[in-house]
Fold this protein.
Amino acid sequence: MGIKKGFTLAEILISLTVIGVIAAVTIPTLISSIDIDRKQAETIIKKTYTSFNDATKQIVMLETVSHNMGAINCTDDNCIRDVYGKYIAYTKTCNSDAQSNCLDGAPATSESPTTTMLMQPVWAAPSGAEEIDFSSKSLAVLADGTLVGFKYDNTCQMSVKAIIEYEGETVDIGKSCVAIAVDTNGPKKPNTIGRDRYQFAIGKVGVKFKANSSATTSP
């Protein structure tokens, strides 16, 4: 009768110890890497918000007589992108019907959120809150590689949501003139809502970054 061989208790304990040491070394590094990615994305999204907020202030003052985003002499998404291009530097642009050069292989439709990166990310569409779609927008790439997509409604009746709600629950901020989708790392993955893809709204006189929980109409 053959002798059955197996692991001794000492061998099992040694193996578990090795696994524990490896886990102790790699897991903190992995978590640290995720935290760095989150901080980088948060920094970029806030920088993008500031740039578009400043540009919007200049546009309503210099590009319109009534100082109203709905009064801009534009009838399509490509036009509103080019108006912002006077005040924000682009490295390249792609019209709404020819987007491949800007998407650079990235999917136009974002994956649904798997995690919340910022405290309370919110995204567009009252009837489709889990979708940010670049495919119907005019695109541009900023100097830092951020991808942005523009959707314009000169009647300012577009229903979208603010980009980040730091306090309280997500609320619909009312009607807006422009919706801007943002991918903080361009074509790179994960292309997921709440991680590298966000969307914010531009009202008649400015960007809506933090909605007041009692706000129901645009300024």
Notes: DSSP finds three helices and eight strands in the chain. The beta strands are 90-94, 138-142, 147-152, 158-161, 172-176, 178-183, 197-202, 207-208.
